[in-house]
Amino acid sequence: MLLLGLVSLLYWAVVATLTTRDNIDRLNELYDVHLARTAKAFLQLIDPDPEMVQTTTLVLQPSEIDQLLNGTPALLEPAGDTHLPFTPINSDDNHEATHRLQYGSHLHYQLWRESGALMAMSVDAPRQLLTQQLGYSNSVDDQGQAWRHYSFHDATHQTRVVVSEPSAFRQALVRHILLDATLPLLTGLPVLLGLLWLSIRSGLRPLDDLRAEIARRQSDNLALLPVAHTPTEAKPIVLALNELLQRLAHTLEQERRFTDDAAHQLRTPLAAIQAQLYAVRHVQDIDQRNEATQRLQTSVARAIRLVNQMLALARMDPEQPPPDFSEVHLDEIAETVCAELAALALERDQTLELSVQPGLPALRGNADMLSMLLANLVDNAVHYTPKGGQIRVQLQRDGAAVTLNVSDDGPGIAPEERAHVMERFYRVAAQSEPGTGLGLAICQRIAELHHTQLVLGQGLHGQGLSVQVRLTS
Amino acid sequence: MLKLLIVEDDVALGAGLQAALTDAGFDVQWVTDGLVALQTLEATSFHAMVLDITLPGLDGVSLLQRLRNDANKLPVLMLTARDTTRDKVQCFEAGADDFLVKTTDMEELIARLRALIRRSGHIGHLQVGDLTLDVDSQSVVLAGQSLNVSGSEFKVLRVLMEEAGQVVPRSRLEQALFGPRRSGDSNVLEVHIHHLRQKIGDARLNTVRGVGYTITLPKK
User: Fold this and answer.
1) Closest approach of chain A CAs to the CA of B61, in angstroms?
2) Of A273, A290, A315, which residue constitutes the final position of a domain?
3) How far apart are CA A49 and CA A38, in angstroms?
4) What is the interface pTM, i.e. ipTM, of the complex?
5) In A, which residues are within 8 Å of B83 by CB distance?
6) What global pTM score does this model have?
């Protein structure tokens, strides 16, 4: 704002100085032309007979000269210069006459014979030659006054004419004209700047209000900013800010819910650990103590599993940057995951089988996440299928996509419950196996990150559970 | 007895590890500082080390780098609370042989340590129950009886015994047989397994269809 004011002032000053200098030069030129014309008019006025021998000097009053000169062409017309900033001379005849009268009375005139005799002069002029030089010249007289002269020789009349103008007079005229031209600008500029400042300030007021509104806010206030009174230019910014605020609110809400859930869910295994630890220390019966130790281990395992799964889920939050995708080979992932979990299945006398259709296409995905997805599904199957059960992992080609299917012949999940098992912390009723209720939520989240969904259905031999994911390249 | 160095600054976890691993038959020394660990390694030789990342004195990754710079090939298992892919990559690049997250259960830790030591070749022979494989003499002994196995069968059996109790994926066995370039003929491995089964007994060698094979550990 201040800068804008300063810059416009500086600009104005530079332009004004340059124009004024230019105008002074033009005006001086113009007055020189005028001086020369006056001299010629003066000669024509006297029109001396070259043959006549005159002994006395004709002395003229300024008023007489002015009267005579009034018959000569106007000052500006011959010059044809429209750049002059003042025009009253052309527009008003009376004014023109007055002006000339004043102008003419200030000049000195001399008309000399070749012989050196002074033929005619204005009453105030000295009797010595005003200037020796022909054409335009300057000089300073005995009183220290500066003069501008124009002098010429006329062959027809055998005479020399000199007309002199006081420089101070000309300067006063020039100053007057220039002041007339620049005064409106000088007075207008501050008004203009003031108006500019006022309009910018009122234009910026909504932005200032917005700034104050944001500055006033508590850090937990994520309410949207008002859009109604925002100037059009700032609207996209406010809208983008609002969008960010919404996302932040969503993230905070999720975080709050997750922390809440996590604390509640961790309480149970920790309480169990505390109880069993008490039993280990206080129960005398060795069998009971062993049993408590066994349960202690189970509870610890459960707490660990819960923490790991919550971490995994937190890392796949929608607000986290999307995972890095690269070329993945599901068959290799499946082999590794199944090899890791097969020992567990063997312990439970279960049959784990991996069947891969040859020639599967490579996919784009996140290998770590897809490993976790498959590991969770197989782990679930191993845990919820009774001893001696059967688990089958299948990879099948489906055009450019690959269908991954994990089926078992365990108890399965009732159709009405299938929609719920993917919610966080949801656990199927009457479950003896320790679980966190997060496994399928994690799988679903991974599937979503790969732009697909888990499909739950019936498993092997008309029972059990099958979970299917169709992964596209 | 297999000598083990544990570097872990958490007293509760360190003491727990020491107790569990001593019970599992290792000769355990436990230090809580990275620099102390470095001095201990200079003074004594170990069969393997369990190493934490965040440590006073010198962090685990730097310690490992120094060790590898000195061409020390001691098998190192990183045991840490950090579990992102980046952490793992960092450890393996520094020269770690294995990586476990701190919440892993003791049985897995013990199994992995045994496998690490077996693979490191510090011991010239592998033993699973009454089945013994001598790496140096390329011989296999079952219940005191020397078995006649081919070179390929020996390669397969060695990997299986190194990973005893774990299911070894087919791809790893094929790699041990043919090197990095995989053979298109998948029957070759089946033939070797079939022969091995006949020699060491059906019950010892389990198949996980579509996945791989495993040598079962004797039940305690």
Assistant:
1) 23
2) A315
3) 20
4) 0.71
5) 308, 311
6) 0.58
